[in-house]
Design a protein that fits this description.
Blueprint (H helix, E strand, L loop, with lengths): L11 H13 L1 H11 L8 H7 L4 H20 L18
Helix pairs in contact: 1-4, 2-4
Amino acid sequence: MTTTPQHPAPARWAVLAAHAVALLTLPTGLWRLLLAAGQPAGYTEAGYEAMGVDGWGVVYVTVSYYRRRRPAVAGSGGRRSRSSRVPARDGCP
């Protein structure tokens, strides 16, 4: 019978800092998604039209949102519940 190694819990300040990073990226992410959805999101109509968020611009803004949001969520423990090791079967090393 094998035992799973126990890892110490992270320090409270580290957990709070990781959650703060995830929350700090949220407003800009929502702003990007509003732009991709066609909302001016703080721009005047002329400024929004000049920016050219249509066609590939929508794809760029959406991909940009996910590329910046994913590391922030991963750092806050978004993957903590998933195990990265395969459980051993009986009789196999």
